[in-house]
Amino acid sequence: MADTRTGHMPAVLAELRRQLRGAGYTIKAAAQALGVAEATLKRWLAGHGMTVDKLDDLCLLADTSLPEIIRLIDQPVRLKSQLTLAQETALVSDPFMTLMFFAILGGWSPEELLANVDMPEAEIEQRLSRLERLALIDRLPGGRIRCRIDRKVRWRRHLMGAQFERYVKRQFVELDYSSSQVFYQGEIIRLSLSGYSRLAELIERVRVDTRAIEDEDRHNTRLESNWYVTLFAVRELDLSRLRAYVVSGGVNMMGDDPQTPAP
């Protein structure tokens, strides 16, 4: 068949790739399921050598159909970069729904949620229905989900920020940083405003790369996995206690005698 990269074909192939990812398939996994080489599948998804039969096979693998893909193309969803005040207020009112939404934002399917969160199916379904009513997700045929929010969403500090204060920050405050089971890295550095801005950009890239690692790990490994929470942060160093320590002649920064052994 002639090269199909004409008309709506690029949009069809782009949506098909999204549907395959939503069904939990990487290029490698999809190629294995179809019994073809990865390079061959990549050529097909680029429009080279694609036929109607191959499109049907790929749609079947993604648990969709060509008419459904065309319908999705004709009714595109513009991802929002910020929730409305009502949406974000409702979302943060339920910590479990918040966790589910972040998983969906990261590409998790309902089946993956059910298999990886220790919650009754009815509780998961209840939150999915509420997320749909809030217009944060779409429920698609075959039990698939489409998120309506961009991964680079901007959160309000007094809503999602407050949620972070209540449920996430405490886990880092209570962390035993002397434990061999805890992995962390820290640096004390002096930066100009320009250097600080570059560091903030680096942290954002690390956050994006972290999501990419999770995507690849979720689709390509069969090893047991656990939930983790990450925190990428930088703040101005408070030297007031260090100055007080020096001025006091050696009383440590917590107000104790440095010679007193730790309990």
Please supply descriptive tags for the structure shown above:
disordered N terminus; Arc Repressor Mutant, subunit A; 13 helices; 3 domains; 2 strands; 434 Repressor (Amino-terminal Domain); 263 residues; disordered C terminus; two-stranded antiparallel sheet
Structure, described:
It is a single chain. The protein has 263 residues and is mostly helical. It folds into 3 domains: 9-74, 434 Repressor (Amino-terminal Domain); 78-167, Arc Repressor Mutant, subunit A, CATH 1.10.10; 181-263, no CATH class. It contains 13 helices and 2 strands. It has helices at residues 9-22, 27-34, 38-45, 52-61, 66-74, 85-92, 95-105, 110-116, 121-133, 160-167, 169-173, 193-220, 240-247; strands at 137-139, 145-147. A two-stranded antiparallel ribbon has the order 1-2. α2 crosses α3 (38-45) and α7 (95-105) packs across α9 (121-133). One of its GO terms (molecular function) is DNA binding.
Low-confidence stretches: 1-6, 257-263
The figure for the number of domains is 3
Q: What global shape is seen?
A: elongated
Report the structural category.
mainly alpha
Task: Note the main sheet.
Answer: 2 strands, antiparallel
Task: Please tally the β strands and state the result.
Answer: 2
Estimate what percentage of residues fall within beta strands.
under 5%
Order of helices and strands: HHHHHHHHHEEHHHH
GO molecular function, one term: DNA binding
Domain HTH cro/C1-type: 12-69
Pfam family, one: HTH_26
Protein name: XRE family transcriptional regulator
